[in-house]
Each structure stands twice: as structure tokens, then as C-alpha cells.
């Protein structure tokens, strides 16, 4: 990559092993034929192989005519074919993936996206949430990851966030979970504590981009250190005992999620929320065991992972969402994310859900199609852990190429999935996948593309 492509206002890619985008683009042509399943392309390959074989034989015959025997050092076509490494076959969008004892029907996943629609402010989902999530399950998504769900009322991003901080919330989730699974998708849920980014406004409350005042239903916020996010209210620093209490809150919420029927649990350690605030030195100035070096700053997350795993057992997959970089000099970056991912793998995390950003307000991010994919590839390769890729992945061939290149194990279709609940079914048509191999609901098969 050119030097000017490696730098922008708040982040410098130099020193990171970021894949060469031009080289990746050149590889597109090679992958395109396989992705289309073009029989004609396969026939052309056979023709080329036949020509190469004939050419090799002619060369050998010519050498033999001069010496009366095969040329010195010459190899037969069969020997050359045996010496050539076999082409690696990678899974496609509609191939299943197994995490522990759970098999997900395909690798097109709906990422967690906040809807701020628990209008009663009690954390319980509503008919809107049923419609939103079940329609995506019917639309063919492999895993449906429910939005950031608060483990404590003061951990909500907004007053209208959903939650699982109390047992009486469990039943309100069951009908949604049951019908996600009935539609053939995997039901997962993201657990979160917003920390200093809690008690913020939304379309249903007002005060968007601001702290909601107490008279409008807001509350004081907490964080690792007394450092505010942008123009939000200054948080109070958590005590060690309070940190231990939040670890327990994550574990308890995970237990409730499993009781509600969720099949996989994701811990939200990205986007500048509480766990992310502990990880990033720009927001964590603690001088106790929860601050300082990477081991100290990651201690909170590791303790949550261990506590959640103890509650959910060995069969339930555990995912962690991370920001691979916070796009700010001196802050959380790719090298630390790779080191953290190795630690998480050792503690039983099954997949790292890779995103970026969120800890610092107003940073410049080089947004473009697939802009976060290189981070996924680096974490997958260097930490040897399954990963997702997300971030302006909107087109079927674009998504398929991410898997074909080995850059991720699953792709998440976010905003495009908001626009089109049936994105996977359309993608299958674009990619030429036979209808029999596409997760159409039986009621919709006669309307298949």
C-alpha cells in the first residue's frame, strides 16, 4: 500500500501488517469464476491443462529425439501435477459452521444493532423486537445476534435499551428466541454495560448525543476512571468491589439468556462501552490491578469471560466483540487486539467478532466498503481464532470474497440487513446458489428467485 493510504488524521497503519489492497483486488479475478460456479470457466481450465500437457509432451519428445532418451531433469505432467500444492477449498456463504456443539446453518449473520425500542423502559422486548429479529431469521440469516442487552439498569446505553438484569425479564424473550430458532436460524444475544456512555438519549427519549438528565429518566454513569466521553457527563470511577459486582452481573445475565433459550452468548467489549473503556489506555488511568499494562487492562474482560463460561457450561459458544482499533494515536490498536484474542482463546472464547472504534468522540475513520475486513484477517491469522468481518459489506460477491480469501469465518450484514430482511435469499440468487440449498421458509419457496 502507498504511504498516503497508510495514514490519516488519527491513525497510522504503518507498522501493522495490513494486506495490500491492490494485491487483493488482483486476486478478485481468480476468485470470481469459482464464486459464480461457472461451468464454462471450468471447461476452459481443462482445455488449458490439456494444452499444457500436450506442450510438455512435445518438449519431452523433442529432447528425446536428440538424445534417444528423455531429456535430463524432465518431469512428466503427472509428476508436475503431484508436485503442485492442491488449491485450498474454503467455505462459502451458505456453508454451515460449527462452534462447540452448535452448528449454524450458514455464514451470513445479523450483527447486534441497537434499536432503542423498549419504550416502557423496563428492558423487556416488544412486538417490534419480535418482528425485527424473526423476520431476519425467516430471511435466511444463519445467526441472529440480538442487540446490546444491559446486564444492569445503569448499564443501558439509553433508557429504551433491552435488558436481562432480572429474572422477570426472561419470559419476555422466549417467544422471540423460539421463533428465531423455528425459522432455522441460531439465536444469540450480546450482553453489555455501557459505562460512561450510558444514560444517553435516543429518538424515543430525545437528548440524542447527550446525557439524559435525571428528570427525564437519566442516571449517573460509571467508568474505570473519571474521564468523560465527548460532551457527556463525567462518570464516577468504579471501586474494585463494584467491578466484581459487574462481573457477577454479566454472569447472571448470561444464565438468564440461556434460560430464555439463546444458543450463543456474545460479550460486548467494543465500541467504547465499559469493557472497552477498561481495555483502552486513553480511558483507563487506574493504578490498581485493573489498569496499567495489557494484563491489567484486560483483567476485567477475562474475569467476565471466565464467570460467564462457568454459568453457561461447556456446550454453549461464547463470542466476544472487540474494536480492533480505536483509530486514535496512543490508544487501543491491532497489536493489542491480537494479543487479547490469544488470551481469550485460552479462556474458552470460540469466536472474536471484529469491529472498530468508539472510545474517542470525533475521530476520523477511513470508511469505505469492507474497511474493517483487514483487521479480521490479521486477528484470524495471527491469533488463530475464528472471526467475523463487518463494516460496509453490502454486496453478495463482496461478502463471498471475504470468505474465499480466508479473511473471516463469517460475515455480518448490518445496515444492508436493516434495509432488507431477506438479504441472504437475494444473495443466493446473485451467486447462483440452487434454491434447494438456500434457507427459504417452506411457505416462500414458490416465490423463490
From TrEMBL:
Signal peptide: none
Ranges where the record places region Disordered: 24-94
Basic and acidic residues bias: start-end ranges: 33-50
Protein name: NADH:flavin oxidoreductase Old Yellow Enzyme family
Keyword annotations from UniProtKB, A to Z: Flavoprotein, FMN, NADP, Oxidoreductase
Compositionally biased residues, Low complexity: 65-88
Positions in coiled-coil regions: none
Cross-referenced InterPro entries: Aldolase_TIM, OxRdtase_FMN_N, YqjM-like
Cofactor(s) for this UniProt protein: FMN
Single GO MF annotation: NADP binding
Domain NADH:flavin oxidoreductase/NADH oxidase N-terminal: 93-430
SUPFAM superfamilies (UniProt xref): FMN-linked oxidoreductases
Plastid found in the keyword field: no
Amino acid at each position: 500500500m502507498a504511504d498516503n493510504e497508510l495514514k490519516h488524521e488519527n491513525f497510522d497503519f504503518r507498522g501493522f501488517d495490513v494486506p495490500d489492497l491492490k494485491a487483493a483486488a488482483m486476486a478478485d479475478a481468480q476468485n470470481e469464476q469459482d464464486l459464480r460456479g461457472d461451468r464454462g470457466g471450468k471447461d476452459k481450465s481443462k482445455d488449458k491443462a490439456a494444452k499444457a500437457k500436450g506442450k510438455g509432451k512435445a518438449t519431452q519428445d523433442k529432447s528425446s529425439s536428440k538424445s534417444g532418451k528423455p531429456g535430463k531433469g524432465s518431469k512428466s505432467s503427472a509428476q508436475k501435477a503431484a508436485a503442485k500444492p492442491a488449491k485450498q477449498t474454503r467455505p462459502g456463504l451458505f456453508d454451515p459452521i460449527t462452534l462447540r456443539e452448535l452448528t449454524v446453518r450458514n455464514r451470513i449473520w445479523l450483527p447486534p444493532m441497537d434499536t432503542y425500542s423498549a419504550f416502557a423502559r423496563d428492558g423487556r422486548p416488544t412486538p417490534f423486537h419480535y418482528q425485527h429479529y424473526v423476520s431476519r431469521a425467516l430471511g435466511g440469516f444463519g445467526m441472529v445476534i440480538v442487540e446490546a442487552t444491559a446486564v444492569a439498569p445503569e448499564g443501558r446505553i439509553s433508557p429504551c435499551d433491552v435488558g436481562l438484569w432480572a429474572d422477570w425479564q426472561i419470559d419476555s424473550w422466549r417467544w422471540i428466541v423460539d421463533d428465531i430458532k423455528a425459522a432455522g436460524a441460531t439465536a444469540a444475544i450480546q450482553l453489555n454495560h455501557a459505562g460512561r456512555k450510558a444514560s444517553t438519549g435516543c429518538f424515543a427519549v430525545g437528548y440524542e448525543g447527550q446525557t439524559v438528565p435525571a428528570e427525564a429518566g437519566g442516571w449517573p454513569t460509571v467508568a474505570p476512571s473519571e474521564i468523560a466521553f465527548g460532551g457527556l457527563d463525567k462518570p464516577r470511577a468504579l471501586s474494585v468491589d463494584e467491578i466484581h459486582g459487574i462481573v457477577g452481573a454479566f454472569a447472571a445475565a448470561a444464565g438468564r439468556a440461556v434460560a430464555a433459550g439463546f444458543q450463543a452468548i456474545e460479550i460486548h467489549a467494543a465500541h467504547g462501552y465499559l469493557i472497552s473503556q477498561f481495555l483502552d489506555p486513553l480511558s483507563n488511568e487506574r493504578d490498581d490491578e485493573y489498569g496499567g499494562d495489557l494484563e491489567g487492562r484486560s483483567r476485567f474482560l477475562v474475569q467476565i469471560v471466565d464467570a460467564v463460561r462457568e454459568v453457561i457450561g461447556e456446550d454453549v459458544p461464547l463470542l466476544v466483540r472487540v474494536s480492533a482499533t480505536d483509530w486514535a494515536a496512543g490508544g487501543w490498536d491491532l497489536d493489542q487486539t491480537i494479543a487479547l484474542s490469544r488470551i481469550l482463546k485460552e479462556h474458552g472464547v470460540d469466536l472474536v467478532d471484529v469491529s472498530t472504534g468508539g472510545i474517542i468522540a470525533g475521530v476520523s475513520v477511513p470508511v469505505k466498503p469492507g474497511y474493517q475486513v483487514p483487521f479480521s484477517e490479521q486477528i484470524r491469522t495471527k491469533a488463530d481464532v475464528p472471526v467475523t468481518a463487518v463494516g460496509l459489506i453490502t454486496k453478495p460477491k463482496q461478502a463471498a470474497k471475504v470468505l474465499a480469501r480466508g479473511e473471516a469465518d463469517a460475515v455480518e450484514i448490518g445496515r444492508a440487513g436493516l434495509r432488507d430482511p431477506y438479504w441472504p435469499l437475494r444473495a443466493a440468487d446473485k451467486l447462483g446458489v440452487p434454491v434447494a440449498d438456500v434457507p427459504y421458509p417452506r411457505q416462500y419457496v414458490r416465490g423463490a428467485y
